[in-house]
Design goal:
The protein has 326 residues and is of the alpha/beta class. Helix 3 packs across helix 4 and helix 6 runs parallel beside helix 7.
Length: 326
């Protein structure tokens, strides 16, 4: 089969040949129509984020496509069914195997490209907001990188939970997009510290929950922005991972929690449970339009390097999509 592969020397992407995936009992073989970019792809192609043991070496953490074959013991799926879901790898290939419990049915009104924009970012946001963060109605949530794929998903989930979101984003266009999705306040992080704006927006209480992709550079401000009993969930360390100063006394006095999280490395059983929880909450909302995938741009598979360059330059609002097959 054809797959988008990485040149080990140049770290550039090219269209080459890869072995066909095997289908075990309990899995679906899917003909991939579209996949989406994630920052993990940028790291993996540079050798900085290897896939979990047993996972495909091919890039791609999500896909949308058509069921070709259902393995033994699989019920409820037939060849021709439209399907999307999370992957440990392999989404940049023409075919991929996925545990049936991690597969979700594409709503009729969504295209393959739109469906491919959902799994990684919405499941990541759901995990961190609801499962780890304990999001409740009335909470205030600070979302960094608000215009990213996870950010645009989180804004919508916070809104649907009856909570309020504050986001940071670097351009007027991105901030406007966040506000249009339901964010209550969009802060220009290039203009200076964000703590005062967060405190003012929450009447001095601070945020109950912070989702952070930046890491060390935001540590002190995040601590100062949290409400008593607040949670900081560290999803990434784009700005660095080493914190120079840590005041444990401050954390104790305010009863703060810091949670590190990664979705890709979780066992299949946990991903299946998460998919089931997410589907119960989100699929009716995708069906009636309350939730929607945010697609930045769609690229052909021979434009994979250009698509990666767009993400590397932080130019996207929402998800960058690769069309794998027509």
């Amino acid at each position: 089969m054809k797959a988008i592969l990485v040149d080990d020397q140049t770290k550039q992407l090219y269209l080459g040949e890869a072995g066909e995936p095997s289908v075990s009992a309990g899995e679906l073989l899917v003909s991939v129509k579209a996949t989406a970019l994630n920052r993990a792809d940028l790291l993996q192609k540079r050798g900085l984020y290897p896939p979990p043991p047993g996972a495909s070496e091919i890039l791609g953490l999500e896909m949308a496509g058509v069921v070709e074959k259902a393995g033994a013991d699989v019920k409820g799926w037939e060849p021709g069914d439209r399907v999307f879901g999370l992957l440990p790898g392999g989404g940049y290939a023409e075919r991929v195997a996925i545990p049936a419990g991690m597969a979700m049915r594409i709503p009729d009104h969504l295209s393959f490209e739109q469906a491919a924009a959902i799994p990684e970012v919405f499941l990541t946001a759901y995990l961190n907001l609801f499962v780890l963060g304990g999001l409740r109605e009335g909470h205030d949530v600070l979302i960094h990188a608000g215009a990213s794929g996870v950010g645009t998903a989180a804004i919508q989930l916070v809104r649907e939970a009856g909570a309020a979101s504050i986001v940071t984003a670097g351009t007027r266009e991105k901030r406007d997009a966040c506000l249009a999705l339901g964010a209550g306040l969009a802060i220009d992080y290039t203009a200076g510290p964000f703590v005062q704006a967060v405190q003012e927006a929450t009447d001095g209480r601070g945020a109950n929950l912070i989702m952070d992709f930046i890491g060390a550079p935001y540590w002190q401000q995040n601590m100062a922005s949290l409400a008593t009993d607040g949670k900081l969930i560290v999803i990434g360390t784009m700005g660095g991972s080493k914190v120079s100063e840590l005041d444990l006394g401050f954390m104790l006095r305010k009863r703060l929690q810091v949670i590190g999280t990664a979705l890709r490395s979780q066992p299949v059983s946990a991903k299946i449970k998460l998919t089931e929880q997410f589907a119960r909450f989100a699929m009716p909302r995708f069906a009636d339009g309350r939730l929607k995938p945010i697609v930045d741009t769609v690229w052909a598979r021979d434009q994979a390097n250009e698509a990666h360059a767009r993400m590397e330059k932080n130019q996207n609002t929402g998800k960058i999509i690769l069309r794998i097959q027509e």
